[in-house]
Amino acid sequence: MAGILAAYAGAGFIKGCRHAWLHDGDTDMQVRVFEYQLFRDGIYPNPRIDVSPPTRSRRFTVYPPYALPQFIPFFEPGGKLQGRVMIEMLSALSLGVMGAWGWGRFRPWGVPMAAIAAVSGGAIAGNSNCFALGQFSIICMGLVAMQLILLERGRPVAAGICWALAMIKPQIAIAFAPLFLFGEGVVGLLTGIGILLALSLGACAWTEVSPFALVDEWLFRSRLKFNADGGLPALYAQWVSLNQRFLVGIGLATIAAGGLWLQRHASRRGSIDRLLAAAVIPVLCMITIYHRNYDHVMLWPLLLATLEQALARRQRIDAFVAIATAVSLLAPERLFGIVPYAAEARALIWIGAAVHLLRTRGLSPGGPSPLEAAAPNNAEPLSDDLQGRDRGSQA
After folding, report:
1. What count of Cα atoms within 13 Å lies in the side-chain half-sphere of residue 367?
2. Buried b vs exposed e over 212-243: b needs ≥16 C-beta within 10 Å?
3. Within a 10 A sphere around the Cβ of 186, how many other Cβ atoms?
4. What is the DSSP letter of 320?
5. Of 252, 368, 353, which is closest to residue 305 (Cα–Cα)?
6. Of the candidates 303, 279, 260, which has an alpha carbon nearest to the alpha carbon of residue 361?
7. Which of 2, 33, 301, 344 could form a disulfide with 278 if both were Cys (CB 3.0 to 4.6 A apart)?
8. Gap between the Cα atoms of 321 and 364, Å rounded
9. Is 201 exposed, middle or buried (0-12, 13-18, 19+ CB in 10 A)?
10. What pTM was computed for the model?
11. Buried b (16+ CB within 10 A) or exposed e, 247-263
C-alpha cells in the first residue's frame, strides 16, 4: 500500500510540475511575482491603500502585508523562474518533513504502517494543482510539521518562527495557532505574532503607506470577496446573502474557541496529544474560510489521526471513518468535479471524522482515553505549572 501511495504521489508531482514548465501554467505564482515587483519598487499592490499616482497597472492583492517581504527569497533576484524552482523544491522538501513526522508517529505500529503514514501527505490529490499553479500550501504544511516537531522537543520559540513563516497563507496556518495553547507554547505564539507585526510594519515603511490605512482596509473597507470565490464559503454565498467579513470573523472565533476548549480538556487530563488538535481545528477552518483543493493538504493531520484511531481500536466504525477520510482526500479531484454535491459530502465527512475523534478519544475530566489505553503512548505530559493551575482551579 505504501508503494502505491508513493507512486500516486510521484505521479501528482510530475503532472503538476509538467503543467507549470511546459504550459507556463503556474499562473497563481506569476501573479505573486507581479505583486512582489510592485512592492520591490516601493508600491503597495492595492490602489485603495497606496493612492500615489500609479506608474503601472495594479491589482488588489489578497495577501496580507507581512507576506510581501516573505516573497523576497522566492522571487529575488530571478523572478518567475526562480519562484517556480523555489516553490517546487521547498514543496518537495516539505513533503519530506511531513513524512518524517508521520514515520516517527506511526513507527510503534510497525514499518508498513509507518511507511503509509510517511507518504500519505504527498498522496493528497490536491497537491498536483498546488505544483501546477505555484501555490505555497504544501510549504505551509511543511512548516506546520516543523512546528509540531519543535513543540514536541520543547522549543516553542523556534516553533513560533516556523508558524510565522507558514502564515504566508493565513487561511492554512491560522488553524494551527491553537497548538501553542498547550503546555508552555504560548511564548511561541507571541514570537510568531511579533515576527508578523514586524514584517507588516516593515512593509508599510518600505511602501510609505500608513499602518492605519491597512487596518482600515482589512477590517472595514474590504469586502473580502475572495472568501466567497471558492470552497465552502462560496456555497454559503449561494444559499444566503452573508457578509464575508462576518463569516471570516465567525471562523476565526470558532478556531480560537476550539483551541481553548481543547486546552482546557488537556489540562484536566494532565497530558496532550497535539495530533488531535491538529486534526480537528483545521476542519473548523476549512468549512468557514476560503480554501481550494490545493489547500486540502492542511487536513493531512486528520488523515493520520483517523488512521491511528482505526489501528488502535480495531472497530468497524473507526475503519469506516478512516476509509471515508482517505477517499475524500486521496481520490482524484476530477471525480469530485462530476459527482453531484461532492463539496457538501466532503465537508460532512470531515466534520463527522472530527466529531468521531473527539467523542472516542475520551473527553472525560480525567484518566486515559480509550485510544490511549490501546495505542502506543504518543501523548505529552503537560508542564508542572499548567497541571498545578488546573489542580488549584478544581480545588
Report:
1. 7
2. ebbeebeeeebebeebbeebbbeebbeeeeee
3. 14
4. H
5. 353
6. 279
7. 301
8. 22
9. middle
10. 0.87
11. bbeebbebbbebbeebb
Amino acid 383 reads S
**Element (H or E) spanning 381, and its range?**
strand 380-381
Domain regions of the chain by residue span: 17-394
Distance, in Å, from the CA atom of 61 to the CA atom of 109, rounded to the nearest integer, reads 46
Mean pLDDT by 10 residues, the chain (395 residues): 90 94 93 93 84 66 92 94 96 96 92 94 94 96 95 93 96 92 86 96 93 82 60 59 67 80 71 83 83 91 94 91 94 83 87 90 46 50 42 36
Identity of the amino acid at 178: P
Q: Kindly state the DSSP code that residue 56 receives in the 8-state scheme.
A: S
Question: Can you tell me the distance from the alpha carbon of 378 to that of 304, in angstroms, rounded to the nearest whole number?
Answer: 13
> For residues 74 and 80, what is the distance between their CA atoms, to the nearest angstrom?
9
